[in-house]
Amino acid sequence: MAVSGSKDGTVIVHTIRQGHFIRTLHASGDSCIPAKISGLQVGMEGHIVVQLSQEKCSNRKGNFSINVYSVNGCLLSCFTTEEQITALHLVSEYIILGTIHGSLHIQDLFSLDDLITPLALKVPVRCVSVTKELSHILVGLDDGKLIVVGAGKPEEVRSRQFSRRLWTSTRRITQVSSGETEYNPTARVGK
């Protein structure tokens, strides 16, 4: 299935092979406050994750939200925050969010509950991805740095262990290891 989002909060779902219309989702719901879609992700099982940003309103908190829909278009859960969400990545049953304030959230897809305490990276997050082996989260920051977040100590991490270790281990929560690297094109090798 293919999905597209618009400035008015509408998500249109089509078949990917023939392009036939399937349904329209109104992500802003019954809200009279206009919301525009700033991000979309489709899971392997057809779950649709919609990232919304609502126009600023002085008396309303939570200008940014995430909605999760089933393959049939039913709203499963929603999450509202005051932090602008700048990066979104869907991995099987989990959502990884990065914010403008430098927080990295790992949430359950169905309940949108935080699975671990959000990691404070102190710099706005620009993009989030997960390695092919599902062993590490790659976080691109606004200052050009790449943060690599792994499940536990590096010597404990094996390929395909990430999802089980990162999402379900309470012991691991305090052991998230992260390192950073910078690309410096002006540095010369062998000075």
TrEMBL record:
Keyword entries, A-Z: WD repeat
Domain of life of the organism encoding this protein: Eukaryota
GO molecular function: protein kinase binding
GO biological process: intracellular protein localization
Entry GO terms, CC: cytosol; membrane
Positions of the Neurobeachin beta-propeller domain: 2-151
Name of the protein this chain belongs to: Neurobeachin-like 2
Source organism (scientific name): Nothobranchius rachovii (bluefin notho)
Upper classification of the organism: Eukaryota, Metazoa, Chordata, Craniata, Vertebrata
